[in-house]
């Protein structure tokens, strides 16, 4: 018998996440450049982001053109860099830094660390963008996948932390709960 899939979340009906999705509006435009191998990975968190934040844009590939100009602010690359603005600076400094930063939209590279470095190499214009990073995100809950040193966060966790810092009206809780449900599904499947 063929497996049936949910028409909305595209997962098998037994794994449908629709009941756990709480849609939100992104406080800033978000553009995710996803490496093709990551797009095929069953444990990618970008499909979860697409469900919960339907106004994000996802482009899959290795070479991209620079995005269109924003009506307000500039595009910022969410990526660790020595010159990156750390959104987790002390509260008294944070507001001034973020106000001066003129963050109009976020570009996120999705893939393994090796693949995101490749995307940077193949798209040198990305290095011209100001970078945004963080230093005090909550501990990662995406235990089914590991990054370097076991401390890396998923794309969903990184973006939810940044959006929470950028906008007082954004709540990361629905995204974290959705991720938790998905992790439990994978753990149950492997047990």
From TrEMBL:
It is an enzyme of class 2 (transferase). SMART domains: DTW. InterPro entries: DTW, DTWD2/TAPT. Pfam families: DTW. Residues 2-191 form the DTW domain. Keywords: S-adenosyl-L-methionine, Transferase, tRNA processing. Its EC number is 2.5.1.25. Belongs to the TDD superfamily. DTWD2 family. This is tRNA-uridine aminocarboxypropyltransferase.
